């Protein structure tokens, strides 16, 4: 039986080669999109599950509750871990990992700038399942000034030399002994590092805040034992926090809470990190796209099968006469669509292999179908193939198996005006999905353009920011600035602790007349920063060079004035470690990304530990030319520090990486969706027009011109495209509205987008239908008579 | 074998009601060769469809091999059909995508016969029908007469007790038509009941009984004394 079905499938496929190719192409592209998105989704869900005991690892998050609501933070004081272990018997162990920071390492003459340097507790390699290639897990981070490097970094720094026991210099003045080599963390790890520094070193540094009163920069993980009960734990936690901190905060308006977060939920469901919201949103959007593309491909199959059903009606009749039941035939036709899907699946695997490197580059991951585990992904893929086969085959199988042999065997065919209704409905759905994606990408791209053109309130053109990586560099900031200013092409030069555009630190301040401290953003800058960045002083004055020696003073932005001061801001006080006097008001500028509205900001001129960046404004279009000069000057003054310049414009773009990635992926998948829909339309129109040959011939005999017949065919398909465009409007507006909700500054959705998409899809459909309509309308009437 | 009592078939559309068969009653015994004749539209094919369990009557009873089948569902009808009835059509109704061998094999597949047994049986019948040399050809590569031989081979492959032939020579020239009629005659001699719808008086001569229909009713029934 199976062989017979296989033979029939093969011969039918060969007979209708055009339809088969279109179906195979559509389904294999659809399945490729499905695989790519499955790979992405599986990878996202695999985050942090590679740790052996991941089910018992939790991150401790802090939440600050005040009258405005809860503020969650994953970076918490260092004291929390040890205190929890002391107090709670159900907590087995803890491990802390500090906030990632940049540093540069030097060995002999080799200097390497590193992005991810973190402090980690000595049990790091026993607590987590990161691979230690050299060294003993219990010892490598035990003691002070011990460092574990990743294999990649060790090779870069030491070449073939054995790094163990070697001393490297960090940021020009700190010596660290290399005690271990670790494998680079897998891409699906939330904890990333290039170098791990022993946590005990921090306790040897008296300037570090490691108690309850500050230093919120340590992610703290705990493991719990079997006796752990969440309700009991939460009850005890209340009292624990009360004695540790909350009693001291009484009257401040703040209350501290702790919340455990399973490690495997951090990447997608974290309350404390905005990234996880974006990650889960991306998964939803991509999954939706995969479903759309697969549906479009499935409907191609359904459409072609429905339109060409006439060719199989006789076969169905004969099989029924010979004893096949409706369910036998239903299974046969469904089996055929699943067989086609299996063929498409093989093609899709090949296609995936070809496009995966480009896809990986696009999404900045390292995904592979064959290394994705032996079970889950292949199983999901098989389910996907069967599902696709089922969805595409169910309708054709239903109506093909329902044919009555007494009708079909007489050469008859149930002909009614509704015969093409299903294909038409499916074409409308296909086009509505493709149009929806087209409209969405259109608006998303407009929004991203709007953001990149948005006036941030400062001028990023021709501004270069250079990191001051070491204490020595920070101490020489004035010398550097002066030396830079000597160079031709350098117009201005300033210094700052943080760069505006991606968000800045918050601290508790007490504005004048306030009795409770308020969390307010703060930037430490020098006197020339405002001018270098092209910011505008709207009231009072900017810092000058001698303010640094005077009693504390500060600038604020307009948002600060609106929120905390009724009138005359100049001279008003702000309290924190003494009083600061407001000497000027800056016009509002976007110190955070455009996802957020402009919040109150204080600008001070006395950084705690020196400035971290020098910003340089070059003459018009001189940015690239002056880099060499800056580098030369840099190494004259700081021969042992790496020179790491970054253009301010590209720095600002980093806040929108996620959106830009979304836009690129959406563009590609939209292209695929439109492509599959168009080849589907091509195939369908070809079939429908073939079936209408008789009608067209008779119309011609009755006097219709070729032009008129083509026009009528085009109008028929144009109506479908129009309905699809109209149907897509509401879902697109809903989706885009919620996506734009993530931005504080947005474009408005314009009807022009929709009109343009309609026009584009109309033209595409005319092109794909038109030439076939011309061919069909040119039919010679004599052939029609013969054919009949 | 067959007992029809007041078989009525009415086709209804939104506006028109057509009575194709009007209270037709007759009986056919095992081993008979019956020709049904009448002008176009008299209800011959409708009657054949009901007798072949391809359609149900609107009213009346139809007993086939002691089963009352006028209200049977599709599955029951299909089951009875595949075990007991073979069909031969005017336009052959072979599946163009299957070879001669595969076309003939099809009823046995639906009977779930084992592969080896199936092949032997098909080869045997193809030899018998003198079409074995064309086993690997597709229907469209054969002449009309050859196609109808294949159709007859397919009709007899499952050794049905009844063969229904709907204008079996309608698309054939006289030589090929005679060939096919001889085949049917041989089958009848070997015990198979045959009911044949035909316009051709010449073909009807092969039968032992002729039922004449007009406007959905039996107007005449002739039983012949001898077999040609």
Polypeptide structure, described:
The complex is a heterodimer of chains A (about 800) and B (about 230). Chain A has about 800 residues and is an alpha+beta fold. Chain A is built from 25 helices and 23 strands. In chain A, the strands form four sheets. Chain A has a six-stranded mixed β-barrel. In chain A, strands 15-16-21-18-20-19 form a six-stranded mixed β-barrel. In chain A, a hairpin with a 3-residue loop joins β8 (about 165-170) and β9 (about 175-180). Chain A is elongated, with a radius of gyration of 34 Å. Chain A starts with a helix and ends with a helix. The mean pLDDT of chain A is about 85. Chain B is α/β, with parallel strands linked by helices. Chain B is about 35% helix and about 30% strand. Chain B has helices at about 45-50, 75-85, 100-110, 115-130, 145-155, 175-190, 200-205, and strands at about 1-10, 15-30, 35, 60-65, 65-70, 85-90, 160-165, 195, 210-215, 215-225. A six-stranded mixed beta sheet of chain B has the order 6-7-8-3-9-10, with helices on both faces. In chain B, β1 (about 1-10) and β2 (about 15-30) form a beta hairpin. In chain B, α3 packs across α4 and α5 packs parallel to α6. The radius of gyration of chain B is 17 Å and the shape is globular. The interface of A and B includes residues 8, 314, 320 and 322 of A.
The averaged pLDDT of chain A comes out at 85
Whole-number average pLDDT of chain B?
88
What portion of residues of chain A belong to β-strands?
15-25%
- Overall shape of chain A: it is elongated
Counting DSSP E segments of at least 2 residues, the number of strands of chain B comes to 10
Uncertain residue ranges of chain A: none
Which chains make the largest contact? A-B, 27 and 31 residues
Q: What can be said about the biggest beta sheet of chain B? A: 6 strands, mixed
| Distance linking N and C termini of chain A | 36 Å
Number of helices of chain B: 7
